[in-house]
Amino acid sequence: METCWEEAGWERLAPGVARRRMPEWDETVGVVVGRTGILVVDTGATLRAGAELRTAITRLTGRRPTRIAFTHPHFDHVLGSAAFAGCEVYGATGVDELLRREREALREDAIRHGVDRGAATEAVDHLVGPHHLVSGELTLDLGDRPVLLANVGPGHTAHDLAVLVPGRPEVVFCGDLVEESGTPQAGPDAIPGHWPAALGRLLALGGEDALYVPGHGSVVDAAFVRAQRDELAARFGVST
Known about the structure:
Elements: E1 11-14, E2 17-21, E3 28-33, E4 38-41, H1 47-61, E5 67-69, H2 75-78, E6 88-92, H3 95-101, H4 103-112, H5 117-125, E7 132-134, E8 137-141, E9 146-151, E10 161-165, E11 171-179, H6 195-206, E12 211-216, H7 222-236
Parallel strand pairs: 4-5, 5-6, 6-7, 11-12
Antiparallel strand pairs: 1-2, 2-3, 3-4, 8-9, 9-10, 10-11
Helix pairs in contact: 4-5, 6-7
């Protein structure tokens, strides 16, 4: 029987695939349910948020999550990781070193964006970094369904990872390479000259009929991603 995601405040995207738009920072957290494993895409901005997500997913599915994929290393997408004890964590190549090296910067970024200082410090102190790094593509087996992790960056950061869930429809978790609720944010760690090309790789990955799930905002289609690619190319003066 299909889980009633909507009744619990989640958005069902496909059979066994859902996402939640988190309060405060509107970051997307995704979940992919297989017969033998459950993948969580990003973990929220605090340990409390991560714990609430873990509890909700376990209650809805009857099983604990087993794997986590970080789409990129910003505070609102990774700081809930320690709440998912026992999960195997995946990220783009180099994100492990960055999270070790930049922990103080990560904490200060969270505080600057409104996370309580104590909560930010606790989450950073207990942050669980990736156990597995993806340099190209890696397929995870969740039992009855494969899930493809693809290192499509750099773009929004130097370590952007997309998650493709095959099916009807196909679902692509884009992280902040795609944003619907506002202009894509290019911070000091963005790689503007490569961002349009990363969106081109996303489009090649999902195709014309996929659902593209942005890091912030409503689910979009290929036309939206293509338009955002062209806007970013014009904004940063690079070709598509």
